[in-house]
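pinned: reference chain
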Amino acid sequence: MIAYLLASLPTPRLAEPPALEPATFLERCRGFVSEERWRDLDELLAARSEGQGAASTAMPDRAPRDGSRPDRPRDPVARTWHDLSAQIDDAVAIQRGANTRRDPTPYLQRPSGYRVDLVEAVERAFGAQNPGARERALDELRWRLADELALGEPDGFAALYARAVQLRVAWRWAQWEAAAGWTALETSLRTLEAPHA
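pinned: its structure tokens
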């Protein structure tokens, strides 16, 4: 049944705004997956709306006060993605910690498993010429990992979850606006110039 759902969903592209909103995606999935799997999809997409991703979660301004971490997903496919994403976030936190001379330890999620290729890809992303290119490289890594995840079950839940991951990444890029970026840059420059004025 999931194969029919996948065929009816638009295929996302990283550089293009998705043709489907998160709520519509979730509503279409509801009748095709168990409640547990639907909750895992919902939590993945809810994390997107809260701004999670390499730019915002890998090195937040402060660690959670109670030391808590979100619960691991229930479905094995969702847990696999959770661990892969956490490995990326940990590598980002380590890179940012090295760049800012901050201890990344409070921000590390310590997922199960370790992939050297993810760490190397994050290191390459941090060698990018600008933050936009770095974010693009990190999201291309996420996209590739979602494709890998889908290979495990190309007509099943793994492919559907991978599609949700890719939609999440595409929605993130669709929300970025040049005007907002210039405003943020101007604010940052004023902050840097203030002590010297």
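why pinned: Residues 86 and 146 are 14 Å apart (CA to CA). The mean pLDDT is 87.
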